[in-house]
Design a protein that fits this description.
The protein is α/β, with parallel strands linked by helices. The chain is built from 21 helices and 22 strands. The strands form four sheets. An eight-stranded mixed barrel has the order 14-15-17-18-19-20-21-22, surrounded by four helices. The protein is elongated. The protein starts with 10 loop residues before the first strand and ends in a 29-residue tail after the last strand.
């Protein structure tokens, strides 16, 4: 019998009985000499699996079936007495050079009078490969192969541990500029290919040991380890901006995009993964607000602005839910008759503690958060209901945001507002900015055509201040051009502004479009615009935005010294 506490003794293998069981076993098995580590016996399954003949096997030691790079580790383990009789996982090498993953189970035996070890091997290569694939899928982005958000957090945590012993790290949050235009114009397949190429370029910008991750959509992040200071992070940001600005050739299409980057440092700005991620995102927001195609480091003032922004967003959501928003109207006056021919609907926020909050404070925030869609639909419904009580022929103008155009149901929303209010479609004028056209041209064209089919009129707002193009006036079905107040208010003092106003009015007349000049504040401006052929005028000269109850639709807005053409 075997002493269970004496590995050196082991089980005594009776030769005849052992040979029969040993050679018929379905799993590879062998016996090796525990003193010299050479093979004493191998079964048929081992000979078949490893590809060595029995004679070759018996001339080898256990080192000969290990990859060369593993032999040093194996010798160290043997020297420490930790090799025998432990169930372990090893890499083995077959006769053809193939490397496999093997689980081995070892039992001390006495074989032909020698102290030996009986080994049973189970090939777990496919299982390990499957586990590796599953692990990779859990930690990497399927489309680009970059680290995903989960692995990024692990990388940040690992880097922060090293920061405790000195040095710095940087987290760069990257957002692609104008990527949506590529998706809209070329399709999602080419958009995906663009993201894959961007991923390769980002990898080319970093050093070994840095982590590049895709967080989703067109958002990326990089953990830059072992930097000396902000200059290293800034240099990386410069490399990224240069790499992204190079044109992309995607299946015959030349694509140009840019990037915005927010940068946070540890331990300078944060000491934990959650905080550094937040402040890097704040810096990214600042970089985008500054005009995009650049980078911005986090500073404390940004954090305070971010807190104020979050608080304003919370209050705005409360305002929407509790009826704190109002619609005010600014009259639009017929340039010839000087009577009110329409009014523009403008959102106002009557805050219970802060008083009246004007659109320049909350509309940009609503655009960023998506709340503009909810606000826009409410303004549209309210304006239609109010306008239905106005005199016949008086129109109401309602602004549409780029966000609203991204919703496929915009035409349905307009149709429902008209049906609910009973307002005739021809008395509803929808205003679209040039920015909305640029951001989603294909969607705009389709939606504007649907709106025109409903019978509403469409105006191009703030003409000349964005990415103006004459092709827009022929591509999109506009009925009116609105001349921005920046030109109207400076047309007396500046010849260039006067020339732009005049050219726009001539262009609109040639295209059969009406015009509204915004920002009219003086009688002289009104006179010149009437003489130049403006269809209608809007501005403080006639009335400031106000509740509908304060508008007198029968009022004639006094003579400007020029006789009516009639």
């Amino acid at each position: 019998m075997r002493d269970p506490n004496n590995h050196a003794e082991g089980f005594f293998l009776a030769h005849d009985a052992f040979e029969g069981l040993f050679n018929s076993a379905p799993l590879p098995m062998w016996v090796y000499d525990r003193e010299h580590l050479g093979f004493l016996a191998v079964n048929d399954a081992a000979v078949l699996f490893y590809g060595h003949s029995r004679e070759q096997f018996l001339s080898k030691t256990i080192f000969d079936i290990r990859p060369a790079e593993d032999c040093t580790e194996l010798r160290e383990i043997i020297d420490l007495g930790g090799y025998e009789f432990e169930d372990r996982s090893w890499r083995h090498r077959k006769a053809n050079g193939t490397t496999i993953d093997a689980n081995v189970y070892t039992q001390a035996v006495t074989y032909e009078g020698r102290a030996g070890a009986l080994v049973t091997m189970i090939d777990v290569t496919k299982r390990r490969q499957a586990e590796a694939r599953i692990s990779h899928m859990a930690h990497h982005d399927a489309m680009t192969g970059l680290a995903n958000r989960f692995l990024l957090q692990l990388s940040i945590n690992d880097a922060l541990v090293r920061v405790r012993y000195g040095g710095r790290i940087a987290l760069l949050c990257i957002d692609l500029d104008r990527f949506k235009e590529v998706n809209d114009s070329l399709g999602h397949a080419l958009g995906d290919e663009l993201l894959r190429i961007v991923s390769k370029r980002l990898r080319g910008c970093v050093r070994e040991g840095d982590t590049v991750a895709r967080l989703g959509g067109d958002e990326f992040a990089i953990v830059q380890c072992g930097i000396a200071g902000p200059d290293d992070a800034g240099a990386l940001a410069d490399r990224i901006l240069e790499a992204i600005s190079e044109p992309f050739d995607i299946k015959g299409h030349t694509v140009k995009i840019a990037a915005s980057i927010g940068i946070a440092l540890a331990p300078d700005h944060a000491a934990d993964a959650e905080t550094i991620s937040k402040v890097a995102d704040v810096a990214l927001y600042q970089a985008k607000s500054a005009g995009r195609d650049g980078y911005c480091f986090f500073d404390q003032e940004m954090s305070e602005n971010a807190r104020a922004r979050r608080e304003l967003e919370r209050e705005l959501r409360h305002a929407i839910q509790h009826g704190e928003l109002e619609v005010h109207y600014q009259p639009i006056v017929n340039a010839r008759t000087r009577r009110i021919c329409g009014a523009e609907a403008l959102a106002r926020w009557r805050h219970p503690a802060k008083g009246m909050i004007f659109p320049d404070r909350f509309i940009p925030l609503a655009e960023e958060t998506g709340l503009i869609t909810q606000i826009g639909e409410w303004v549209l419904r309210t304006a239609c209901i109010d306008a239905a009580t106005w005199p016949d022929g008086v129109k109401v103008s309602v602004n549409l945001s780029a966000r609203q155009f991204s919703n496929d149901n915009l035409a349905s929303v307009v149709m429902c507002a008209l049906a609910e209010s009973g307002l005739p479609p021809e008395r509803l004028e929808l205003e679209v900015t040039e920015t909305a056209l640029i951001e989603s041209a294909a969607e705009c064209l389709r939606t504007l055509s649907q709106l025109k089919n409903l019978g509403v009129t469409v105006a191009l707002d703030d003409f000349g201040t964005g990415y103006s193009s004459f092709s827009q006036l022929t591509m999109f079905p506009f009925d009116k051009i609105k001349i921005d107040k920046s030109f109207t208010q400076n047309m007396i003092e500046r010849a260039d502004c006067a020339a732009i106003v005049h050219a726009t009015l001539v262009l609109a007349q040639g295209l059969g479009m009406e015009t509204t000049a915004e920002g009219v504040e003086t009688i002289e401006q009104s006179q010149l615009l009437r003489l130049a052929g403006a269809t209608s005028l809007q501005g403080y000269l006639f009335k400031r935005p106000c509740p509908v109850s304060e508008i007198d639709f029968e009022e004639v807005h006094g003579s400007d010294g020029i006789e009516d053409a009639a």
